[in-house]
Design brief:
about 80 residues
Length: about 80
């Protein structure tokens, strides 16, 4: 899980520095980039909390899995 809305420097970016494609639970592409996922969609807004699927390229290998995005109150 990661908590990008906190922006406190911990768990802010999923797979930082890696090529990654993020999909929602319906299989729709949420974002694609080469420096991990900061929890935002292609529109620049934070994605809704929930489980997302990813495809990541690490050392030439493609890995697939899930990640849970959690929103925490910013205070």
């Amino acid at each position: 899980a990661f908590t990008p809305t906190r922006r406190e420097g911990l768990n802010d970016i999923f797979l930082e520095g890696r090529e990654v494609i993020i999909f929602d639970r319906y299989g729709n592409k949420v974002m694609e980039g080469s420096n991990g996922w900061d929890g935002t969609t292609h529109t620049g807004r934070f994605a809704d909390p929930g489980v997302y699927y990813y495809h990541a390229v690490i050392n030439g290998n493609v890995y697939k899995g899930t990640i849970e995005l959690i929103h925490l109150d910013i205070k």
